Amino acid sequence: MKDLLDLPREQLARTPTPVHEAVRLRAALGADCPRILLKRDDLTDLAVGGNKARKLEFILGDARARGITALVTTGGPQSNHARMTAAAAALCNMRCVLVLSGPGPRADVGNLMLDRILGAEVRLLPAEAGAAGEEDEVTRAVLGLEQTGEVAHVVPLGGSNALGTLGYAAATRELLQQLEGGPAPTRLYHASGSRGTQAGLELGARLFGAPWRVHGVAVSGGEPEKRRSAHRLIHDAAALLGTTVEAAEEDLLTHQDHYGEGYAIPTAAGSEAIALLARTEGVFLDPVYTGKAMAGLIAHIRAGEIGAEETVVFLHTGGVPGLFAMGARPA
Ligand SMILES: *Cc1c(COP(=O)(O)O)cnc(C)c1O
For atom 1 of ligand 1, which residue has the closest CA? Predict the structure, then answer.
């Protein structure tokens, strides 16, 4: 098996990110609340931080080795992935075209504003453009870049390909090192979207012997296709390292009760979670991803599903710029 460090990698994230115990959050959730550790990947530092920095390290390492000079990627108008891809491209002297469509505020605020500051070329499609419209625009962008002599590379939605998946395998090793000597967490909760993060966490847990079960909290629908693609990502990423792991589709746990009406549509429980973490710990979550994930963890704690003697890691995957575009409407 190859080591993760043997693969081409561009240093984009400032790591290790902090881990700290949410003592006041635990107190607020009552006597039966488990110990909660926050793994602060909102502080990966690349352009306000977030989970995509770790994925992009491997994606950009590979792109550079292949002589790529321009990146094209897709996402919603408030995509964190688009913002961080724009930043990664800037750091690597690459051009960047963002094809943005789907739900989310289109005003020049939040991530969309940051995309423009980062120098990306933004192509904002109308809400009704659909998947076909997005695909056409990506093709046009690639052709346009190639006509001006660029070598273009399309980064998949959310950076969720096999290379990107390695980011959270590496993060698992980092977290295990940080937790050495302390109580072993039984669960790791995180916001799960395109599933690259979850696939990486599942792969890392197997490669490095993590004691916890990964609990993805879905931020949008799409089962069972997404479960299938997570499964595929685990095995494809393992293959990049020249190894195999045991992971069946049924082993992947992604809770489906917390995304509400759909992607990027805030929920009341998410807004409550955002306010609670802000008021107890001074840490902001976001309305699209981490607020919903924390709402899932809080629901499980309140339902008595997690023992007070357990230790839980909550992986904060970032997304805070979305708060400036969408708000959280706390009670
Ligand atoms: C993209 C993103 C996620 C989800 O990661 P996936 O790998 O797409 O599942 C979670 N949180 C934030 C803040 C994100 O931007």
Answer: 158
Mutate to test the pocket of ligand 1, among 80, 168, 220, 324 (most ligand atoms within 8 A of CB): 80
Q: 108 C-alpha vs ligand 1 centroid, how far in Å?
A: 21
**Closest residue (by CA) to atom 10 of ligand 1?**
191
| Spatial separation of the C-alpha atoms in residues 25 and 13, rounded to whole Å | 27
Cα-only R_g, the chain: 19
Q: Is 73 in the pocket of ligand 1 (CB under 6 A)?
A: no
Residue 180 β-bridge partners:
none
User: Cα separation of 239 and 204, whole Å?
Assistant: 13
Q: Which residues are catalytic?
A: 79
Beta bridge pairs of residue 170 = none
CA 304, CA 147: separation in Å to the nearest integer?
Answer: 60
Distances (CA, A) of 104 to 95, 163, 167, 188, 199: 25, 28, 27, 28, 26
Query: Is 191 near ligand 1, meaning CB less than 6 Å away?
Result: yes
| Strands 187-192, 311-316: pairing kind | parallel
pLDDT digits (tens, 9 = 90+) for 75-116: 999 999 999 999 999 999 999 999 999 888 899 999 999 999
Single-letter amino acid code for the residue at 196: G
pTM across the whole model: 0.97
